[in-house]
Amino acid sequence: MGIDLAKAREDIAKTPSEKSDVPRSASPGQSLGELCVDLTQKAADGELEPVVGRELEVEAVIEVLCRKERRNPMLLGGRGVGKRAIVHALAQRIADGNVPRVLADMHVLALSPEALAAWHPVREKVDELAKMLGTVAESENLILFVDGLRGSPDAAKRVPGQELTGVMRFLLQETKTLCIAVTTEDEYKAACGNYPGLDKLFRPLHVKPLDGEPALAALRARKEKLEQFHEVAFGEDALECAVASADSYLKERSLPGKALELLDAAAAAAKVRAEENESVTEELRACRARLKLIVTRMNNAIGNHEFEKAKFYSEGERSERNNLAELEKKYGVKAQAAPLVTRADVEQIIAKWNKYPYAA
Question: How far apart, in whole angstroms, are the C-alpha atoms of residue 323 and residue 211?
Answer without folding.
Answer: 47
